[in-house]
Design a protein that fits this description.
With 551 residues, the protein is mainly alpha-helical. It contains 23 helices and four strands. The chain has a four-stranded antiparallel beta sheet with strand order 1-2-3-4.
Length: 551
């Protein structure tokens, strides 16, 4: 039975399989521990703890063939903590039910050398070597392993091992032969009984529950969705005193349906990937080719459609972003791509890469995207209609660049959204008046705001948007469709004039009668989560990843 088979059986609940691993590595582990701490009793405790930690963290080991180097990495970390006074073996003693003595009485190998001066001379010379060199000595002379076997076991390069042996020969000189009496194979104790007793007390492992990145991602997805869902609900609730309850309730229902739809689309992707893996036959036959080809074809079509939609949405979303936010958007996509590639090429690094991505959200958070979630469609109409002044606003000529920057400001308020259409002197953009499941994907059927370089502003209000507003705001408070389009356009004309006169963002919000509304995204729950909560989660993931990488 090799290491891979033993690990698989252990994860399925066969403790005897782990006993095989203990029996195979116990002498080598004890020899390395003794080379680092010099005391046989301490080496025994450290060896047993190393095996116990390896058992508990076995689901974290992705490369089943690298059990040996991984086990020695755990042992080295334990020895470092022990020598620094940071390690305590109280848990091990409790699990073994002993008072601090090793399970098996192991004589100190140093006592096999007769005269005291021989002991002092040899160990004083050994003390001149660094811990990795002492490891190599214990395995090469004590366990009689070849250089290749040591490299495979410890993860060191063969050239490094040869260099350390060469240095050891120089330091030890004529006392090199005495090493056999220190690290000989015979006196090394068997520690499997104590380790297996502790393993039994630990209980059966459940494969992947604690450490699987894939399962962790599945569990993390509903948690993140719930977090952003909570943010959107809290931000929507801030509009309670500024818009009818019916419109707020409707936006909440659309939000729920949208979240469920997105969740279904994302969950479907790994399901299709798993279906591909399960339907590809190991040995091809004519009967297998049809279902295999059909599954692969449907999967490719699904993923191609998903990529096309995401690319189209991304292109549209950047139309109304400022240069600063656009750079952040592209940087975010680039980092997300690196995380995705990391998860495919090196699954063991997924946790660290995702943590790094979350930490970067502190710097890459995009306020315009936050506004689209914090300001639900249509909730601002009621406040805009309460504007008391009916005085006609003088139109002020503006440039195409001024129109673009003004629309970018409105986008950061959550009032407008792409796509942007440019036709000569006229620029049009979508008005966010109606909540929809496919708001980001639809290219037509929405109301538009039209602006010309002469400073003229008009509104094309489609019947469907008006009907939905009427259903939730009420006909008593809502004028007719044409009248509503005129009044909305009049308010935006005042806002454009205030912006063209460089009166500032506050003047624009006042001209739209929204200065008292929660369009200030700096107070949004979504922004706080993206700027503070997500980076904090990222720091935790990075710390967890480092601790797992260097146990």
């Amino acid at each position: 039975m090799d290491d891979t088979e033993a690990i698989e059986k252990t994860l399925r609940g066969d403790r005897d399989a782990f006993g095989f691993l203990v029996s195979r590595y116990q002498a080598k582990v004890f020899a390395v521990a003794l080379a680092r701490v010099y005391d046989a009793h301490d080496a025994m405790d450290l060896s047993q703890e190393a095996f116990l930690r390896a058992y508990e963290r076995l689901p974290m080991l992705r490369n089943r063939e690298a059990f040996g180097p991984w086990l020695f990495m755990i042992l080295r970390r334990l020895c470092v903590d022990f020598l620094r006074g940071k390690w305590r073996n109280k848990r091990l003693r409790d699990s073994l039910g002993r008072s601090g003595q090793p399970v098996e009485n192991a004589p100190d190998p140093r006592l096999r050398i007769g005269a005291s001066d021989t002991i002092q001379t040899l160990w004083s010379r050994i003390a001149q070597l660094d811990p990795p060199s002492r490891e190599v000595l214990s395995l090469h002379y004590g366990q009689e392993l070849t250089i290749t076997e040591i490299a495979s076991l410890t993860g060191m390069k063969e050239s490094t091992i040869k260099m350390r042996l060469r240095r050891a020969r120089i330091v030890l000189g004529d006392r090199l032969g005495d090493l056999k009496g220190v690290w000989g194979i015979t006196p090394l104790p068997a520690i499997s009984a104590g380790v297996m007793k502790a393993v039994t007390a630990t209980g059966t492992l459940k494969e992947g529950i604690a450490a699987s990145s894939f399962l962790g991602g599945i569990l993390a997805f509903p948690a993140l969705v719930s977090l952003f869902w909570w943010c959107s609900l809290r931000d929507t609730k801030r509009w309670k005193n500024h818009t009818p309850d019916g419109l707020i309730d409707h936006n909440k229902r659309v939000l729920v349906r949208s979240v469920l739809l997105i969740a279904a689309a994302i969950v479907l992707a790994p399901v299709i990937a798993a279906a591909i893996a399960l339907t590809i036959p190991l040995n091809y036959s004519p009967g297998d080719m049809l279902p295999k080809g059909l599954t692969i074809g449907l999967s490719i079509a699904y993923f191609a459609l998903l990529v096309f939609l995401l690319a189209a949405i991304f292109k549209r979303e950047t139309d109304l972003l400022s240069l600063k936010d656009k750079v952040k958007q592209y940087a975010n996509i680039a980092v997300a791509g690196v995380v995705f590639l990391t998860s495919l090429l090196s699954p063991a690094y997924t946790t660290g890469a995702f943590g790094f991505f979350l930490v970067l959200q502190f710097f890459l958070v995009n306020k315009s995207n936050i506004a689209l979630a914090a300001v639900p469609p249509g909730v601002w109409i009621a406040s805009m209609l309460r504007f008391s002044s009916e005085a006609e606003t003088r139109t002020i000529p503006v440039t195409r660049m001024q129109i673009k920057s003004w629309l970018t400001l409105l986008h950061s308020y959550g009032l407008v959204a792409p796509p942007v259409n440019r036709d000569g002197e006229c620029v049009s953009v979508r008005l966010r008046l109606r909540a929809s499941l496919f708001e980001k994907m639809t290219w037509w059927g929405y109301s538009r705001l039209l602006i010309t370089t002469r400073g003229e502003v008009s509104c094309d209000l489609v019947p469907r948007d008006y009907v939905e507003l009427a259903q939730h705001i009420g006909l008593d408070e809502l004028p007719g469709r044409q009248d509503l389009a005129t009044r909305v356009a009049h308010s935006f004309r005042r806002g454009l004039a205030a912006y063209a006169n460089s009166e500032g963002e506050a003047a624009v919000a006042s001209a739209l009668n929204l200065s008292d509304c929660p369009i200030d995204i700096s107070k949004s729950q979504g922004l706080r989560v993206n700027r503070y909560i997500l980076p904090s989660i990222g720091v935790v993931l990075i710390v967890f990843f480092i601790r797992r990488l260097f146990p």
